[in-house]
Here is the input.
Amino acid sequence: MVFYFSGLVFCPAVGQGQTPAPTMDRTTLAPITVNDANKSIRIDGFLVDWPVTRMILLDQKSQVTSGILNWKSKDNFSGRIFLTYDDQYLYLSAIVQNASGVVNDNNGMSLWDGDCIELFLSTDAPTGQRNRISKGDYHIGFTPGTGGNNARMFCFNKEQTIGGGRVSARPTGHGYILEACIPLTFFEGLEIGPGKTTRFNLALDGGGSSSGNRKLQLDLTGNPESWQNPSFWGTLEWIGKTRVSVPVNGEENLYADLVLDGTKGATYWGQRDLTGLILNEKGEPIEGALVTTWPKTKTAATDKEGHFYLEQVKIYDRSVVYARAEGYGTSLASIDRNHQATIISLKSLPDFLTSENGVSPFFYGQSFQVPANGDLPGLMTPLRDWVKPLGLNILKLVGTEFLNSSKDEQYQALDQFIEYARQIGAEPMIELPIHPDDPSAAADWVRHCNVEKNEKVIYWTIGDEPDLYAIKKKGAEFDGYNVYDYINDFRQIYNEVKKVDPSLLILGPELAWRYTSGEDDWMTPFIQFDGDIVNLVSIHHYGSIKKAQCNPNDVLDDVHHMQTLSQNLKSRIAINSDTYIPLVITGGNICMESTDNTATAKLAVSQTGLTSITEMLPATPVSKAVSAPNSTLPEDMGPNSFWAGIWEAEQAGTLMKDSMPMAFFSYLSGNGPLDFFDMKGAKPNYWVLRMISTYMKGNVVWSQVQNSNASVYAAQDPKTKNVCLMILNKGRNYYHPKIILKNVEAGISVDAGLNQVFDFEIPFYSIAFLNIKADKSHDEVVLYTKKMALEGKPPLVSVIKPW
Here is the structure.
């Protein structure tokens, strides 16, 4: 990793007759030294009152981490950034060159998605190799707005504005000048003094000339993952005389007393020391594993031999010992009353949950919703020939509270579901229903599946959209159900099922939508109180909650902000937990409510024998270019519409690029408004998932489209080098781009390393999959248009050849 720094030169100060300091060697790896200000600084966008300050340059091709084809030279896009401080503020100023114009109309968490400066600063000691954001890290964005108007700043990972700070910007002939100050009290735990150091990084984002979306990024580290990995950051050294020590203000959770402490109904056994050993699945000791007890008392870390020691712990008849470590699933063991040492074995998380290389092998999943009549086999059987071609990696069972009340009938349904999943090549995932008065009922299911039947079902969720339980009136026991009720239920069920099978991976909180902010943020308290035990943080995502919000502008806006949401949640999880917890998406749809304005697809579900897309799709030439006809009829944007397929494709493409381990939407069953099927047949989003899961595999490769109404996503087989391009045309006109599969600027550019060029016309309102062979043996296009969706037709296949 190489950082590029320049010397103590500050151009406006030089203009006032001061002598510039000598420049540094640009390859110096030493920490950046920052001096304090010797006079007050006015935040007005004019830098004449700044002291002589070290200049940090972002102007090298090696620093481009996004949009490499958009970067021409430092004259086209670059930045000179300066830092200083006094006993009250940290000051930042920047002189930015941006020849394409300055545009950013976003706010809050989306501030990075346009012209913006990003500052990363840690108040934790700069030791070790922390590879994820923690509570002591700060990620702050500063934007000049559009044309230098409406400058603002926001702290991304704390999800808050910066009180008491100021920011100002003004346009220049070729970019903008920005100036800001942040109160040092904002950085809890910050230590400033001569010779003290902290981790830090800088990034410069460039927006498009009209759209305002981020088209380009320069990062001081040159690493695109630096935003979430402090181990890549550099070091900043304070060399001024000013000394500041900012205390940590631990915010008290006003509702913490609603979380059970584990002692209710428990029998106290006394107080004693606890010792034990934490091992991995190979029987090797794990150093640095964190060990706690429930009821909660103290925390210890294991030594090099994996041993832990907890002094004088209060023990109850239901006490357990928890263990967690970076890269492992959490687990537990009951405490032996005879003072035997406690041994806990932790299982490594699967590679797809910790790796960011390629499309996750468990990315494609779907759900079966148990019908209200409890007849699960009657729901699954007719759809088998439609489900198998999807190539699902995960098959999830939800709505399990509707399974028949007889234990034997429940077990029979579970057996049938597991067998069904394994027959289509998917790993089963099962929702454990919440029974507040009987948490041990969930343990019976696990015991039947994994002990008595030895099915080795790994993935289990606790509940399904608990943030809707009170609204849906699921029963008297769920009246007024809130996040703290779920936190308590989650832990009780976790304890019971992990005692039966410690190797399980438990998912939660399975929220429908309450992971935003304020009273609608169930995510933060869940991680704060149950983050020590949950294995995967799972949510559902809907493009809109109410059908009145399900319109083109809101839906496309949701797609546009999906990456922001994903990064926001990952940061929120990281700063509220002390070990890595993967984020996955296990449900959702374009809208949580049915809109039902237009007819759905008309293909009969009874059709069978459909084993591959190319076998079941007719061939057709690409149509001639025309414009979409005008229509005065209200358009369906809901789960039955072509737009649901567009939304699903955009979500999948975005989440692939963001290395999401699992991301699936809708339901396979045919008894609800969000399902893939109804009495008339398959809906458009079924066909879209079928195309995506068939073709979008391997490694995600960089791609770019020069059209604001189009999107492109690309995946490449690492062995054969074959490429698939998923191209979405969301506009009313045909799009006829030149497509180049080498890193060369074109209508559509793909960094696939193939010397192939295509000329392809994409119809209006359509999704096209270009499946390209590296050896040029056979290239094809699978096309799905809005017209096909309205007519109930499947996608069509045609042949395409490179120049």
The longest helix spans residues 483-500. The radius of gyration is 28 Å. Confidence is low (pLDDT under 50) at residues 1-28, 597-627.
